[in-house]
Amino acid sequence: MSGTGDVMGNGGERLRRWRMVLGGESDGTGCALGGRDAAMDAALGALYGGGGTPGGVSGGSRRAGGLGGSAPRVARWLGDIRTYFPAPVVQVMQRDAIERLGLDSLLLEPEMLEAVEPDVHLVGTLLSLNKAMPETTRETARAVVRKVVDRLEQRLASRTRATLTGALDRSARTARPRHADIDWNRTIRANLKHYLPEHRTVVPERLIGYGRAAQSVRKEVVLCIDQSGSMAASVVYASVFGAVLASMRSIATRLVVFDTAVADLTDQLDDPVDVLFGTQLGGGTDINRALAYCQSRITRPAETVVVLISDLYEGGIRNEMLRRVAAMKAAGTEFVALLALSDEGAPAYDREHAAALAALGVPAFACTPDLFPEVMAAALEKRPLPVP
Description:
Helix 2 crosses helix 3 (71-84), helix 7 (135-170) packs across helix 9 (232-246) and helix 7 crosses helix 14 (372-380).
């Protein structure tokens, strides 16, 4: 009997799950929902139901409601989904609500912003609305962006600094290291011919060590970021990394954003929120103009890394863009081309331009934020990039 009860229980749970998936009264499961399940179903129906008409969430099991155009109603719905679903699901539902129901304009209202679950995609949406944002909403929007930026810095900053500090130290190897700075693996390999079998030891005639990074600037990094609408998440991550790099005294960091115009936001790098609100997502793309500006600011080519973050859809002069990349590489500059800097993989991108860059020795690839420190470390040390 207990076994039968377990089967019945499992069957009932399956019916409940199918009912939640299918929704509506015509799903055929014959499973009625109540309490928390009914409330979850209503929240899902408001977004994914077939009706989608203004008028609010219908009172129970039928997915035929909608969020309408009312900020209070949407704010209540946002509160509901945060109650019933985990944060990653909430973020997906918020994104779907903005895309499917056109809620962008409601994000300009403070009560709406206070109800949302902040994430990178929401920041991208807010930045795209920046110019239309009323003053009454701006401070609330900055608080939302600040919360996301602080989370990203906590996740990424310490590892980035540690990885790049190690890369800078290794790139400054010295032949007269102090004991604590000896690179034992390289020293042993360089002195294997001096192995004494009778003593089972190597007598090192030449020591190889890490040079300690000087307090002065050793490397220069230029982040050149495409701010077209498809690059929103990349802009957010790049701004955070720019601030982290700028906090390292041995790296001089420049941050440039572009569409058909070019904006140098280097003087705002002490606060990535200021950087983000200095961008303007959307518009055209002129990579050649942006690279021309970056090239004009390079003073030590052999000690400089240029990172272009773009989907490579060029609206400017294609051949001139490629000539600039070739000229920078010929001068000794390390050039990195990232199709995206986000957790979502490669976006749509111009494959012809990617192939042309690869022919110049510049592979174009998408990079996750967790891989970015390793990519930068390889570029600083002038070794092959860890292309995924």
